[in-house]
Write a structure and sequence with these properties.
The complex is a heterodimer of chains A (208) and B (280).
Chain A: H1 2-15, H2 17-32, H3 37-48, H4 50-60, H5 63-67, H6 74-107, H7 112-140, H8 142-168, H9 170-175, H10 178-205
Helix pairs in contact in A: 2-3, 2-6, 3-6, 3-7, 3-8, 4-6, 6-7, 6-10, 7-8, 7-10
Chain B: E1 2-13, E2 16-26, E3 30-35, H1 41-48, E4 56-61, E5 64-65, H2 70-73, E6 77-80, H3 92-100, H4 108-117, H5 131-142, E7 149-153, H6 161-174, E8 181-186, H7 189-195, E9 198-203, E10 206-212, H8 213-219, E11 220-225, H9 227-231, E12 238-244, E13 247-253, E14 264-265, H10 268-279
Parallel strand pairs in B: 3-8, 3-9, 6-7, 7-8
Antiparallel strand pairs in B: 1-2, 1-4, 4-5, 9-10, 11-13, 11-14, 12-13
Classes of the chains: A mainly alpha (208), B alpha/beta (280).
Chain lengths: 208, 280
C-alpha cells in the first residue's frame, strides 16, 4: 500500500495547496472570532474531503482502472484513501485544537471542559462528514457521488448551527458531561470505520 | 504451463454479450486479439484483470484462478491499457518511486534504462506528454518489474507509425525470453501480424477462430479471378468471396484448390475482413 500512499502524497502536494491556504485563513479567523463554530469546524471538514478530491483526479486519469492491474487489492485502494483522510483530519484537528487553546487562553475563557467538548464535537463532525460521502463515491463514482457531498455540506452547516447554539450556551455546556462528547467523538470514529467497511464492500462489487 | 487459459467466459451487457469465450495462450507465445470496435476485446481484458465481474466461465493465469490470490499473480503481469492510467501530475521520477513501492520485483535501473531509451523527459508532468509518450511510459512500467505476461489493450492505437514500430520492436524483444508471453488486442491488424504467434478473431462477442498465425497463412490463400473462373473451383475450396466490378476476390483453402491455379498469400487483415463481412 506504500505505493498508493506515495502516489496520493504527490497528488496532494500538487492539488491540495488551496486546502492549506483555506485552513490557515480559517484558523486565523477562528482566533479572532471564537463565537462562530462553523469557522472552527470547517478546516477539519474540508480536509476530510481530500480523499474525495483525490478520487476525482484518479477517475479523470483512469487510475482506478490502472490500479486494478497493479498488485493491490481493491480493499487496499479504499484503505489508502481512508488513511489519507484520517491523517489529514487528525493533523488539522490538532492544529485547530492548538489554535483554539491559544485563542481561549488569550480571551481568558479557557476551560478544559469546554475545550474538550469542542474537540470531541469537531472530531465527530469531521469524521461523520467524510463518512457520508466516501461510500457513495466508491459505489457510484465521483460524479454521481457528488449528491452525497452536498448532503454532507448541509449536514455540516446544520451541525455547526446546532453546536453554536448548544456550545454557546454555557449553562448547557456546564450541565453536560465531557464524557457524552467523548462518546460522540468515538461514535464519529466508529462511523468512519463503518463507512470504510461499506466502501470496501461497494468498491469490490463495482464494475470499473 | 499455459500463461493464460480462458474457458467459457461470459459477460452480458444490455445490447452486448461476450459469449462463451474459450482460448489458451501457451507460455512463450504472443496472441493477438483481433476485432472491430465493440467486438469484446476490452471486455475480455477487463474480465481477465478482474475489473468487471464475469457472468460465467473461468480465467486462469499461470495456472491459478484470477479470483484467488490475484494480487500475487499481478506481480508477474505487465499491463498497458488504451488510456494508460497514470495520474496526470506525476513525472517519470515520481512514477518510478510509486512503482518501486508497488512491485516487489521493481527494477529501478531497467526503468531508468527504458525511459532513457524511449527519450521520456524525467521532470515533465504526465499530462503534458503526447499520446505516444504516455504509451511508452506505460510500456516502460510494464517491462520494468520482470513480468512474464504482458496484457496490452490497444497499446499501439493512436500512435504514429514510427513510434508504433518502436513499440512493436520492444514487444518482440520481450518475448526473446522463452517464458514470456503477450496477449495484445488491437484493431490495427498489421501490427499484430508482425508480432503474433496466435491470432484470435472476435466478432460481436463471439470467438470466430483462434489459431496459429503461420498455420492460418499456410491454410488459406487469396484468388483474384472472374466469376466464371471461380465457379469452376470445388465448392469446399472457397470459404469467403467478395465481388467487385473487375471480378471476384476469394479466400480459399489452399489444399482444396487445383494446383494449376495461382493462389496468392493472404494477410491476416484480409482474412479477418473476409470473415467479418461474411459473418455480418
Amino acid at each position: 500500500m506504500k505505493g498508493l500512499l506515495l502516489k496520493d502524497w504527490y497528488m496532494m502536494k500538487k492539488y491540495c495547496r488551496m486546502y492549506i491556504l483555506i485552513t490557515v485563513i480559517f484558523l486565523g479567523v477562528s482566533i479572532v472570532n471564537t463565537e462562530n463554530l462553523f469557522i472552527v469546524f470547517y478546516p477539519c471538514v474540508l480536509c476530510g474531503m481530500i480523499p474525495v478530491t483525490l478520487l476525482g483526479y484518479d477517475e479523470r486519469s483512469h487510475w482506478l482502472l490502472y490500479s486494478c492491474t497493479l498488485p493491490y487489492s481493491r480493499k487496499q485502494v479504499v484503505s489508502a484513501k481512508y488513511l489519507i483522510g484520517l491523517c489529514t483530519q487528525v493533523a488539522v484537528l490538532l492544529l485547530t485544537a492548538a489554535t483554539q487553546a491559544v485563542a481561549m487562553s488569550v480571551n481568558g475563557t479557557f476551560a478544559i471542559g469546554d475545550f474538550l467538548i469542542l474537540i470531541f464535537a469537531m472530531l465527530f463532525v469531521s469524521a461523520f462528514a467524510s463518512s457520508i460521502s466516501l461510500p457513495f463515491i466508491f459505489r457510484y463514482g465521483v460524479e454521481k457521488g457528488r449528491l452525497a457531498y452536498y448532503v454532507m455540506i448541509g449536514f455540516v452547516c446544520a451541525a455547526s448551527f446546532l453546536a453554536s447554539n448548544l456550545l454557546g450556551d454555557r449553562s448547557f455546556a456546564a450541565s453536560n458531561s465531557v464524557l457524552i462528547y467523548l462518546l460522540l467523538g468515538v461514535f464519529g470514529l466508529g462511523i468512519y470505520a463503518l463507512s470504510w467497511y461499506f466502501s470496501v464492500t461497494f468498491y469490490q462489487k463495482r464494475e470499473l | 504451463m499455459n500463461a493464460l487459459e480462458i474457458s467459457n467466459l461470459t459477460k452480458t451487457y444490455p445490447g452486448f454479450k461476450l459469449d462463451d469465450l474459450s482460448l489458451t495462450l501457451p507460455s512463450g507465445c504472443i496472441m493477438g486479439l483481433i476485432g472491430e470496435n465493440g467486438a469484446g476485446k476490452s471486455t475480455t481484458i477487463k474480465l481477465i484483470l478482474n475489473m468487471i465481474h464475469k457472468d460465467g466461465g473461468t480465467v486462469r493465469i499461470f495456472g491459478k484462478d484470477n479470483g484467488q490470490e490475484f494480487e500475487l499473480a499481478k506481480e508477474d503481469i505487465g499491463v498497458v491499457l488504451d488510456e494508460v492510467g497514470i495520474p496526470e501530475c506525476l513525472n517519470v521520477t515520481q512514477i518510478g518511486n510509486v512503482m518501486k513501492n508497488t512491485f516487489k520485483n521493481w527494477d529501478e535501473s531497467e526503468f531508468s534504462r527504458l525511459t532513457g531509451k524511449l527519450e521520456l523527459p524525467q521532470n515533465k508532468e504526465f499530462k503534458d506528454f503526447s499520446r505516444g509518450m504516455k504509451m511508452k511510459t506505460g510500456i516502460a512500467i510494464a517491462l520494468s518489474h520482470h513480468s512474464k505476461l504482458l496484457i496490452l489493450d490497444e497499446a499501439t492505437s493512436g500512435l504514429d507509425p514510427v513510434v508504433r514500430d518502436e513499440v512493436v520492436e520492444m514487444f518482440s524483444d520481450f518475448t526473446r525470453e522463452e517464458d514470456h508471453s503477450i496477449l495484445i488486442s488491437s484493431h490495427i491488424v498489421s501490427d499484430l501480424e508482425k508480432l503474433c504467434d496466435y491470432v484470435a478473431f472476435l466478432h460481436k462477442g463471439k470467438l470466430m477462430l483462434c489459431e496459429e498465425k503461420d498455420q492460418l497463412l499456410a491454410e488459406y490463400g487469396l484468388i483474384r479471378c472472374t466469376k466464371e473462373e471461380l465457379e469452376t473451383l470445388p465448392k469446399d475450396a472457397v470459404k469467403h468471396k467478395r465481388e467487385n466490378p473487375y471480378g471476384v476476390e476469394a479466400m480459399v483453402l489452399r489444399n482444396a484448390v487445383p494446383s494449376e491455379i495461382n493462389v496468392s498469400p493472404i494477410s491476416i487483415e484480409e482474412l479477418f475482413v473476409f470473415m467479418v463481412k461474411e459473418a455480418r
